[in-house]
Specification:
Number of helices: 9
Protein name: Short-chain dehydrogenase
Order of helices and strands: EHEHEHEHEHHEHHHE
Number of domains: 1
Radius of gyration: 17 Å
Distance between the termini: 28 Å
Oligomer: single chain
Shape: globular
CATH superfamily: NAD(P)-binding Rossmann-like Domain
GO biological process, one term: monocarboxylic acid metabolic process
Family: Belongs to the short-chain dehydrogenases/reductases (SDR) family.
Length: about 250
Amino acid sequence: MNNDMSGKVTIITGGGKGIGFGIATAFAKAGSNLAITGRTESTLLKAKEELEDKYDVKVLPIVADGGYEDQVKDAIKQIADEYGRIDILINNAQASKSGLKLVEHTKEDFDLAINSGLYAVFNFMKYAYPYLKESKGSVINFASGAGLFGRDGQSSYAAAKEGIRGMSRVAATEWGCDGININVVCPLVMTAQLEQWREEYPEIYEKTIQGIPLQRFGDAEKDIGGTCLFLASEAASYISGETITLQGGSGLRP
């Protein structure tokens, strides 16, 4: 399978760290120029420096909070002015509080999850649409097993992510005639927070691993980034409106 992304432009929200940076690395290796967004300039600049030093690509860092429409509108304009095109939009960024029972959530907790997740995805999709239509591009939105499987303590996060899934399916229907394919991924991935948790609670970590048929968490670059590369490739151009669970087999369902 050819994952050459040379000459293409990929937007990755939350691309300066964690899962987003892993995806950015995968796309940089494949030759795509990047626009990475986030709320902390120093994080974005560090990611830009590392990616440009290692790979022959250009990285445009943009400080923007996806929950604010004017910031997203301006970010898309900057990207279009810089590159002249947008081929791939990956909506990865999300903030939320976890570990709270439904009745313990406040409206502010829900606002955080919905604004940084559902509204942010809506804003980026809305303003990137004309460019994606022109390039017959791809959108990859991130949801979660929290919503798919009703995981405890994740009410606001699950609500935001299931909203993203529903909106993605509608967009796949509406934008199909424009040649844009839209899919959702639900990852279970190793992060810096999980690594710290593994060090602090090794026995609980091992018990958790035993519940994953493949006996490991996903790798942000190889597993998540690799799947995103496939979904953005010509080989996946007929796949749209789907939810792909990257959960090592723990997301088995009929």
